[in-house]
Amino acid sequence: MAAAMETEQFPCVLTIQVPFPTARLASVALQSLQVDKELSPLVRRIFTITPSGSDAGAGANATPDQHKTLQVEYRATTNRMLRVAVNSFMESLNLVIEVMEHLDADVLAAEAHSS
Amino acid sequence: MAPLYALGCEGSANKLGIGVVSHDPATNKTRILSNVRHTFNSPPGTGFLPKDTAAHHRAHFVSVAREALKTAGLTSPKDLSCICYTRGPGMGAPLTSTAIGARTLALLWGLDMVGVNHCVGHIEMGRVITGADNPVVLYVSGGNTQVIAYAEQRYRIFGETLDIAVGNCIDRFARTLNIPNDPFPGYNVEQLAKKAFFEEDGVTKREPVLLDLPYAVKGMDCSFSGILGAADLLAAQMRKQDALLASGGTLKEGEERITPQDLCFTLQETVYAMLVEITERAMAHVGSKQVLVVGGVGCNERLQAMMGLMARDRGGSVYATDERFCIDNGIMIGLAGLLAWETGFRTPFEDSTCTQRFRTDDVHISWRSD
Asked: Which fold has domain A2-114?
C-alpha cells in the first residue's frame, strides 16, 4: 500500500548505476554522498551498493568484495524536479571521483615514489 | 609529544582555501605548513551567486588540495590527525561542495572529521598570528559583522549587524560604481577612497568631501542597509551630474559635485566610525585593552588606523593580520578544528553536514580554560 502511494506521488523515477573498481571506493562514494539530505520534499532517493557486472548474477550470494556498484534510485513528483536532483547528484559524484583519482593515499604514495 | 597536523578546507563564500597546520599540545606552538587559496571573482557590477561559486569550488578542489599537500611536504596523509571543514555559517551550495570533497578525503585516508564554525576559525587564527591572548574581537567580513568577547568557554556576541554585513554593504556599493571585484571589491573601494585626497608634491590640494550619509548605531548593534541605500542615491545623483555636465549644462549654485572618490571615502569613514564606536563600548564593558580585528574587512588599512587611534586613547592597541590570514583561508579552519580535536571533539561522519546559520556563541570553546 505504502509502495503504491509512493509510485503515485513520485511517478518520475531514474536509477543510476555507477560501477567502481573496488568495493572500498564504492563505499567511500556512498558515504560521502548520502550525508547531505535531499533539499526538496518533492524528491526521494535511495542509495545502495550492489554487486556489479559479471558478479551481478551472484545476487544475495555475492561476497563483500563484489559489491562494487553504487546504485541510486531517484523518485520525484515531476520530471523537472527529477532533472534538478539528478544534475546536482552528478556534479557531486564528479567531485568525489576526481578526489579518488588524484588524492587517494596510494596515488599520492606512487607519485612521491616516482618523483 | 610530537606536533599534530590537520588539513583545513574552507568554502563558505567565494574563496576556496585548503591548508595544512600543525599544533603542538605540549608547547602550544602553531605552525603553518601551507595556505592555498583560489578565489571566484564575478565580473564588475555583479556579485557571486551560490550555484556558480559551488561549481568553482568543485572545479578547483583537487588542484588546491594537491598544492596544499605538496607545499606542506607531508610524506603521507596518514601523518594528519583530522580533516577539518567549514560547517557554517555561509552559503549552502559552496559549503556543501567543499564538505563533499573534505568527506571523501577523510574516508580515503581513514581520518576523523571535524566540523568548524567559520567565525571561531577567524578568531583562533587571529589570536595565534597576533599573539593577542584575550582581546575584544571585531569580526567583519562580507557575510558577518560581530563584536565578540570571550567568557566562560564561549565567544559571546556583544553586538552585531541588524541587517547586512559591513562587507556586503561595501561590496554592493562597489557594484553600484562598477568597480572590479578583483582582487576584492573592498580593496578597490579603499584605493579609490585614498584618491579623495588630492596631493601634489606632498601638499594637499583638496580635502576630501564628507558627504551626508546616515549613521546607524543602535545600542551595541549596527545597521548598514539604509546606508547602502543612501549611498546608492548619491551615486545616482552623481550620474545625473555627469550627464548634465556632458551635455554642456552647469550645476545649480551651491550644489556639490559628487565624485566616486568622495563617495568611497564617505562610505568608509561612516561605516568604520560605527564599528569603532561599538567596539569601544564592548572594550569598556569587558575592561579589555586589546582589540583584534578579523575577517576580510579587517585587512582594510583605514579601519585598522581608526581602530588604532581609539585603542591608543584607551591605553591599548589593535591587533590585525594581513590578507593571508584575514581573508577566508583553510588554515584557520584547520587550526580551530585541531584545537577541538585535541580535546576529544569529533564530528560523526553521518553528521558531517553544513548549515547556513551557525552562531559564534553556539560553539563550546573546550580548549580554553581562562
From this structure: TATA-Binding Protein (3.30.310)
